[in-house]
Amino acid sequence: MLAVLRLSHRVFRDKRISTHLALTARAFGADEFHYTGEHDTHLEGSIERMCEDWGGNIKVEHIESPWNLIQRWKDLGGTIVHLTMYGIDLTDKLTELRRKDKLLIVVGGVKVSGAIYELADYNIAIGNQPHSEVAALAVFLDQISGSKARKRKFENAKNVITPSEEGKIMEKVE
Amino acid sequence: MLAVLRLSHRVFRDKRISTHLALTARAFGADEFHYTGEHDTHLEGSIERMCEDWGGNIKVEHIESPWNLIQRWKDLGGTIVHLTMYGIDLTDKLTELRRKDKLLIVVGGVKVSGAIYELADYNIAIGNQPHSEVAALAVFLDQISGSKARKRKFENAKNVITPSEEGKIMEKVE
Question: Between chains, do A135 and B20 touch, taking CB under 8 Å as contact?
């Protein structure tokens, strides 16, 4: 079980970044994508349409605050991983994290509350440089699954790509 | 030598995605970031300021069209890698690509010309699902360097993070 929590979404400024986060979550194996901040029906609709066309069924949910979700996750014996450039590098904890069967990955927004650092079981950096929450999430999820998740088959897909060295090959399944 | 070429940047719509791409390029080991589309002094300024604070000196350059850069790269014996969800998976070519010492990584914008697929020596997918050019670039660069590039030291950095399991530790070097 793999869930992503994106903090403090802002409809106008973060529209594309949060969409990229949700699509990255879906492509690299997450089952759920929760977000706090502003409720964004456009974001939810675009991920839903993506699932209709490309298969799978990641659950996308807006929540008022992160605390209940984090508490629920802890009650169920899940592990909270906060991705932050201040954390310790993924490599140092990769073997340990791969053994967990219930991960909630928290990715920050504008300003992350200190409480998140404290509640997290792991504060993990994908390098200690400023870059992108999308980059951090992608590398984290890809390494956790040993690149397997991104290659899995998506159920009920209408669009199916055949990998090609030279161009675009896509089958439309109706 | 590692360069990234971002196609068809649009100042308004792509501002944050292109900034994330440039920061990802920098953090994961690229020496140069070129982009076509609209010239964006704001994007260039923000990467420049980032280098002043966090060190290193990735070169950011707007170019009118991709063709001269690609041709120059080919003339110098470089390899062109186009990241696309239609390509073949990175895993299949990773060993081969790690041996190249001069890579130009092309990441698409709105609509990628068919000529890019043809001119590229490799059309590489990070999974065959729609997600994010930032995610694709991050996973590609991280795997090419075996996660080493993101852990390297940046020269002349004013901000230096000490990795921490619990909070934020950053030194300001003047």
Answer: yes
